[in-house]
Amino acid sequence: MRLPLLQVRDLRIAFGAQEVVHGINFNVEHGEKLALVGESGSGKSITALSLVRLVEGAALSGRCLWTPQDAESLAAVATDEIQTRDLLKLKERDLQVIRGQDIAFVFQEPMTALNPLFTVGDQIAEVLQLKRGMLRDEAWFEVIRLLSDTGISEPQRRAHTYPHQLSGGQRQRVMIAMALACRPRLLVADEPTTALDVSLRGQILDLLDSLQQRYGMSVLLITHDLQAVRRFADRVLIMEKGQVVESGDVVHVLNHPQHAYTQRLIDSHTSRDVLAYRADAPVVMQAKQIQVSYPVSRAGWRGWLGRGEFVAVQALDFELRAGQTLGVMGESGSGKSSLALAALGLLPFKGQLNIGGQAWSGRAKQDLSLRRKVQVVFQDPFSSLSPRMNVRELVSEGLRLHNPELDDLGCLRRLLITLAAVGLTESEFPGLLQRYPHEFSGGQRQRLAIARALVVDPQVLVLDEPTSALDVAIQKQVLELLQQLQRDRGLSYLLITHDVAVVRAMAHGVLIMQAGQVVESGTAEEVLNHPQHPYTRLLVAAAT
User: CATH: 1.10.10.10, 3.30.565.10, 2.60.40.10, 3.40.50.300. Which one for 283-542?
Assistant: First the structure.
């Protein structure tokens, strides 16, 4: 008989008097791919981190039994020599040996997990030197092999680059290489694909699958993405409010869910509920032959003669009318975010871009009136909202700039009306105006970000991946809110996204961008249901 690699028994996690995980039980078998699924706040990430006691200030109870049997140790079962250790009772020095070496982590956002001051090769080599006792030359040889194993092209050159010089997918591959450096028995992948576009998500999941088979390790996938679970996992645990409410084989649980919460997660797809805009509605944003370029260093002696140029957006045209949503879809590096920044007047560009008939001039005072007309909602509200400002200061900041004629009472009235429009009221959140961003959930913070943009009564909202950092149920709520606001206020949206489902739910028209160019355009229904370009077909197929 082979014992499970990990047995979690009656695990409870508390902060002070508040218990957040309530006596959960599960096993991770050898060579198994287990998914732990739930919404934000369900306790899935804190459960994974608590396995190796990485949660500061948490009171842990229960047992986490670690039994790293290999083929040679199976013969010892009969003689009761199997070394089962309770991770919650180990001394810190013993636990440090297990962290990274036996149990390794891949985190959601590699840009924050990697040190920006060191090359990615140095960071992987450091793990090899500390954990496996390798000399520097030996460690660097292994670094190149690991980067090659994770599918990074030109691994010798990439090893000498810094995190900011790599794409999102490449950074995540570096994180996987670092996690695999010590050949762990259990890899904990905490939302490893959430910040990536659809095709990269599939590539990372396929990579994890192939590496799991090659190394014979177990994988604990922490996610809210049910499509990723279907594609990758063998078994699934569903968590709600710190409890495991359903578990079993992936196909059975997701095709025949028994618990009401599981059924709600599976049904958390946003239906299309947008009004058709008038074909003769006024044009609120118009782009003609937009080109966005970045200066780049040139290799060799050419660098002495001047810098080169990278063209991120090439000769792009579009029109956005009142009440219309135009989706701009493409992979990372396609140029869609550069287009969004140009539309906001935050990047220099060639060509003409008019907001309500007025062009960006590049002069702060002259462009002030345009900045009221076009506002932005970013991908991650936690980083876009200042942690030092409370709700009143955050949401009213734009009013002070764009509506200086309003007195304190007028500002407060406009502020409360806008917050109520996005579903945030004093009755539901006592002391709302004095709260800070960290006191809200991810979905509530995104509502704050939307309120901050709406309070100045704009004509256009640039939505830059507004739901990609949110779990499925919260995504649905935010998209339904945006649909309602468009109907009530006649807003126009320039929707930047890599999510086909979001475009289906929200957009009237769509531009498909690849390598800075529009390769296909038309109505959302035509383009997504009958794609003509091979790249569009690839994006649509990756989302199904």
Answer: 3.40.50.300
